[in-house]
Design a protein that fits this description.
It is globular, with a radius of gyration of 27 Å. 49% of the residues lie in helices and 10% in strands. It has 4 domains: 138 residues; 154 residues, P-loop containing nucleotide triphosphate hydrolases (Rossmann fold); 83 residues, no CATH class; 155 residues, no CATH class. With 604 residues, the protein is an alpha/beta fold. Strand 7 and strand 8 form a beta hairpin. This is Gibberellin-regulated family protein.
Length: 604
């Protein structure tokens, strides 16, 4: 099921990109006078149009039919190869035209284009192979019983131009907020310098939101001398957590790479002061790791507090000093209020009783999870068509059990294809990665995921609209401390990885290195302090790699094996390359610079 929804995510928009390439002057010049002109190239577009017509059906059937799933994957792989070849042709034609720019007669240019020498002969064979492969896949659609099927587009209306969804719109948590604040203001249990209060609940139930409400309350500001917030996430790194706490308290970055030195500095900051720390999204179940982290905390003033949010009772049991606070699901009434806030714009649910009835049925299927209610409310935002609401309420995707939250799967399923591609690209980001809107839009532009415009400025504006659309549907939310930064909820990150399939890969961690699939086209590398050769040993398998994106996730300096340059030099199809923030990468080798005609962007 790893790629069970990947078809609609890419293929419809990818085929449109392919159509644009096929109509380009560069390709027409290249095939003019060849047998390809009268053969496959001319008949390929109507064949691919027939494939595009059955993609909705394929997207539905691949969920339960492994043969359809394999067909979708092979078709996407072939489309990638065709795009790459068309790009190579366009690049070569452009190079020759630039060399021939002093020649006035266009016929002379065309003569040069039609005599590419070795490039010409090799490309003929490659192009014929990939076009025949596409033709074969087109014929298979009938064998698989794929039919033309129109799912309907009314649910895809762009929301009215508004600001991002108001994250302060929280429903049904007043009692919980007051209960946590009461715990924070109590005298600590006997003998405890610091009390640890775990908030435990399932993913998407609103643990982080509740912690944010408490953290930002004025009463809490008055009660504590120091506050700090750390997103811990799946990898429990005492050094990173300590450093982040210190930076939040002092507003200064530490250059130290020694945990003991950092903890001594943190101890100095905490002496005699009552503090509140929020450790958000903790997964670690090793008591020894918690003991290593907590050693400076005992030097703060009595009645200091630490709030931990986690899905795991085991995590809570090793950290808590007071009873766990379980966070339950929302009532149907509160869940409806949250859903309605996001679904109805400039109107009231009471004015649409037919929608209210269907909406309440949808909300019941959200199982009391705020994340699910927000996602589906955002999906139906500005849409007052009861038929579309019924389609979502009755969709059989609710019944699939594969670890993906059904409401999020549905919210993705009903996205327009261009937004599906842009969202799936975010699977390159590790969990809890903080990104800026401008950063992501530039990456989308570099990958040709946006519609083409006359200027870079127009394309960038389109990218910002795409970003706003995804944020309004709760796929992104603003980071707590910095409103220019965004993150994806863990469950949304899981969805992105799920739908991206085998064409997107992340290299992360320093122990369990993954084996990169030969179909991989987009790869991110989450930097460690030392990225060794073993981490990249299967990189040569990804011969069609388009993206190598290096992402900074740890404080301090990072270094990478010099062998990475040798591997990247062989990647002639690279479009996006970033080696940012590696201390030992001071310049790009000339062999990689020679690829710049293909690269759309080059990282710092």
């Amino acid at each position: 099921m790893a790629v069970a929804l990947v078809g609609g995510a890419f293929l419809s928009a990818s085929l449109q990109v392919l159509f644009d390439r096929m109509a380009s002057q560069e390709l027409l010049d290249f095939v003019r006078g060849k047998k390809l002109e009268k053969g496959l190239v001319k008949k390929l577009k109507p064949m691919l149009m027939s494939v595009k017509a059955v993609l909705d059906d394929a997207e539905d059937k691949q969920i339960t039919n492994p043969n359809v799933k394999d067909w979708v994957s092979e078709l996407k792989d072939a489309v990638y190869d065709a795009e790459d070849l068309f790009d190579e042709i366009a690049t070569e034609v452009l190079r020759i035209r630039l060399e021939s720019q002093d020649q006035i007669a266009s016929t002379k240019v065309n003569r040069v284009i039609s005599s590419f020498n070795p490039f010409n002969r090799g490309m003929d064979s490659k192009l014929e192979d990939v076009l025949e492969r596409l033709e074969s896949l087109v014929y298979q659609k009938d064998t698989l019983g794929l039919k033309e099927y129109y799912r309907g587009k009314k649910a895809f209306q762009r929301p009215a131009a508004t600001s991002l969804v108001d994250e302060s719109g929280v429903y049904g948590r007043d009692n919980e907020k007051e209960a946590i604040i009461k715990l924070l203001c109590l005298e600590n249990a006997s003998g405890n310098q610091v009390d640890v209060i775990p908030i435990v609940g399932m993913g998407g139930v609103g643990k982080t939101t509740l912690a944010q409400l408490v953290y930002n309350d004025k009463r809490v500001d008055e009660w504590f001398d120091i506050k700090a917030w750390v997103c811990v996430s799946e990898e429990f790194d005492a050094f990173r957590i300590t450093r982040t706490l210190l930076e939040e308290i002092t507003s200064c970055c530490s250059a130290s790479h020694n945990l003991n030195q950092l903890q001594l500095k943190l101890k100095e900051q905490l002496l005699g002061k009552k503090f509140l720390f929020i450790l958000d999204d903790v997964w670690n179940e090793k008591y020894v790791d918690w003991e290593e982290l907590r050693s400076p905390f005992g030097f703060g003033a009595k009645n200091s507090k630490i709030v931990v949010t986690t899905r795991s009772e085991n995590v809570a049991s090793i950290m808590r000093t007071v009873p766990t606070y379980p966070l339950n699901i929302l009532s149907d009434e509160d869940c409806w209020e949250l859903f309605a806030k996001h679904a109805f714009v400039d109107t009231s649910p009471s004015m649409h009783p037919n929608l209210k009835m269907v909406g309440e049925a949808i909300v019941r299927r959200c199982k009391g999870l705020p994340l699910a209610a927000k996602a589906l409310g955002g999906l139906l935002r500005c849409n007052l068509d009861v038929d579309e609401w019924n389609k979502i309420s009755n969709n059989n995707l609710w019944d699939i059990t594969d670890g993906i939250l059904p409401a999020l799967r549905l919210s993705y399923y009903y996205l327009p294809s261009h937004l599906k591609r842009c969202f799936a690209y975010c699977s390159l980001f590790p969990k809890d990665y903080e990104f800026k809107k401008e950063e992501l839009v530039r990456l989308w532009m570099a990958e040709d995921l946006l519609l083409h415009f006359n200027s870079k400025e127009d394309m960038e504006e389109q990218g910002k609209e795409y970003f706003k659309d995804l944020a309004s549907r709760s796929f992104f939310h603003q980071f707590r401390a910095d409103k220019s930064c965004f993150v994806m909820h863990d469950l949304v990150s899981d969805l992105a990885k799920f739908v991206a399939g085998e064409f997107f890969w992340r290299l992360e961690g320093c122990d369990n290195f993954c084996v990169i699939n030969q179909k991989a086209r987009h790869l991110s590398n989450v930097q460690e302090h030392y990225d060794v050769r073993k981490k990249f040993e299967t990189l040569p398998k990804a011969k069609g790699l388009r993206t190598f994106l290096s992402l900074k996730s740890l404080p301090g300096n990072s270094y990478v094996t010099n062998d990475i340059m040798h591997d990247l030099i062989a990647k002639s199809r690279l479009r996006v390359l970033s080696l940012a923030k590696y201390c030992n990468i001071n310049e790009i080798p000339k062999e990689i610079v020679s690829l710049l005609s293909c690269l759309k962007t080059l990282g710092d």
